[in-house]
Structure to design on (165 residues):
């Protein structure tokens, strides 16, 4: 079984993937953390020294690798994974779950987080809403299930995820 969690930054993908992995006894891969581990650089450093395109190349290669795996895995995708058509095509063939949240909830969750290069100097409601509006149709095009994480805990989100065991 493979489950791919997508959604905008701060919607709970990492927390929910860890909860789901524990519940189902399946390994979890956080794509951003794995890219950092493999590259030896933070996401901010990759964006700064290699550029966003290089990061997106690493992201696509990892997504392809994880989707081709013969073993069960729960994948917490980076928020921008849907920006490439190739990635959306991969996600459409998977058990992809979209986590959504209101822009105000995302802002509150990310207020103290400085690890998001695309939010640098843009941590305000309008910027978050604009980016979410652009990405939402892309997220939705890949999703088999959509869960609003605004007012529920990661554990509650985890219990709402429909999986075929």
């Amino acid at each position: 079984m493979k489950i791919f969690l997508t959604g905008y930054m701060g919607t709970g993908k990492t927390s929910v993937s860890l909860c789901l992995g524990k519940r189902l006894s399946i390994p979890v891969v956080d794509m951003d953390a794995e890219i950092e581990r493999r590259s030896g650089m933070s996401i901010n450093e990759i964006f700064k020294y290699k550029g966003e395109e290089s990061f997106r190349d690493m992201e696509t290669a990892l997504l392809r690798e994880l989707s081709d795996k013969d073993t069960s895995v729960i994948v917490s995708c980076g928020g921008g994974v849907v920006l490439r058509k190739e990635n959306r095509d991969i996600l459409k063939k998977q058990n992809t779950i979209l986590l959504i949240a209101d822009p105000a909830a995302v802002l509150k969750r990310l207020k103290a987080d400085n690890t998001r290069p695309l939010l640098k100097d843009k941590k305000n409601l309008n910027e978050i809403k604009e980016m979410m509006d652009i990405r939402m149709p892309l997220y939705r095009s890949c999703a088999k299930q959509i869960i609003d994480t605004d007012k529920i805990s990661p554990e509650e989100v985890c219990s709402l995820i429909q999986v075929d065991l």
